[in-house]
Design a protein that fits this description.
Blueprint (H helix, E strand, L loop, with lengths): L22 H4 L4 H12 L5 E5 L5 H8 L3 E6 L2 H13 L7 E3 L14 E7 L8 H8 L3 E12 L4 H9 L1 H4 L7 H10 L2 E10 L10 H7 L2 H21 L10 E8 L1
Parallel strand pairs: 1-2, 1-4, 2-3, 4-5
Antiparallel strand pairs: 5-7, 6-7
Length: about 260
């Protein structure tokens, strides 16, 4: 989804396994993401929505089916073609689905056209995410909003990712909510909703179950899944809702000045 040789940690082939032929048909959007989109985007009259590092985005697909004019950019050709084919087969019109690196495309060609600029699990793959935000905010209309979501790399789940799939873990940078707000401010945006840890708990977010499955028998795997949910339940009782150890994501809302 995202890369610049001098700045990003991933390359196009890293994402091939994420986009199976039934990826969009399954439409497995986490409930906490549905909640965010309902609150921040879908509650408005359909307009123009652009996603950075979109891949074959479930979020763009659902938005398009709801009447939004969707666009996005990604450097994985398979993902972009998959999304195009899906929307065409559904008979849904869409905007620009661009197969290119975010650093290479001239985004001034889309200046002042979009109501929302969104990214979901994108900015954490770069050393300096604010450079991307600063560059791409040009596509927003005055007062247009940025909705940014990243995985919580401070969570218990992330610790399991680091232990069992270090190669994948190291393709992310750790960002706190305060740092997340700061990078958006540095990009020239104003804060509408300060970044927070949120989502409740997601047993699959960041945990490399396929790698764990290689090391332990099935009954151990089932115990880990059971106790993971059990532990998260008690964390929710004894700690505040936005505690960093269990919430799967960080999200914030920002606005173009």
């Amino acid at each position: 989804m995202h890369n610049k040789k001098s700045d990003g940690f991933t390359n196009p082939q890293d994402w091939n396994s994420y986009y199976g032929k039934d990826h969009l048909e399954r439409s497995n959007i986490p409930t906490y993401m549905i909640s965010i989109l309902n609150k921040e985007v879908w509650c408005y009259k359909p307009g123009k929505l652009f996603e950075l590092g979109c891949g074959s985005s479930l979020y763009l697909a659902k938005s398009a089916l709801s009447g939004w004019e969707v666009s996005g950019i990604d450097f994985n050709k398979k993902a972009i073609e998959s999304l195009k084919n899906y929307l065409q087969n559904k008979g849904v019109k869409f905007g620009h689905l661009i197969f290119k690196d975010v650093f290479d495309y001239d985004c001034t060609l889309l200046a002042n056209k979009y109501d929302f600029l969104v990214s979901f699990g994108f900015l954490e793959h770069f050393r300096n995410p604010e450079n991307i935000l600063r560059r791409w905010c040009v596509i927003l209309k005055p007062g247009g909003r940025v909705i940014s979501v990243i995985p919580n790399l401070m969570s218990l789940n992330a610790k399991l990712l680091k232990r069992y799939n270090f190669q994948l873990w190291r393709k992310h940078i750790i960002i706190t909510p305060l740092q997340f707000d700061r990078m958006h401010l540095d990009a020239g945006l104003r804060i509408i909703r300060p970044a927070i840890y949120t989502g409740g708990y997601d047993l699959d977010m960041l945990i490399p179950w396929n790698k764990i499955r290689e090391k332990y028998p099935l009954f151990i795997l089932k115990l880990l899944r059971y106790f993971g949910t059990f532990i998260a339940y008690y964390f929710k009782i004894f700690f505040k809702d936005n505690h960093r150890l269990i919430n799967p994501i960080i999200y914030g809302v920002y606005e173009k000045k």
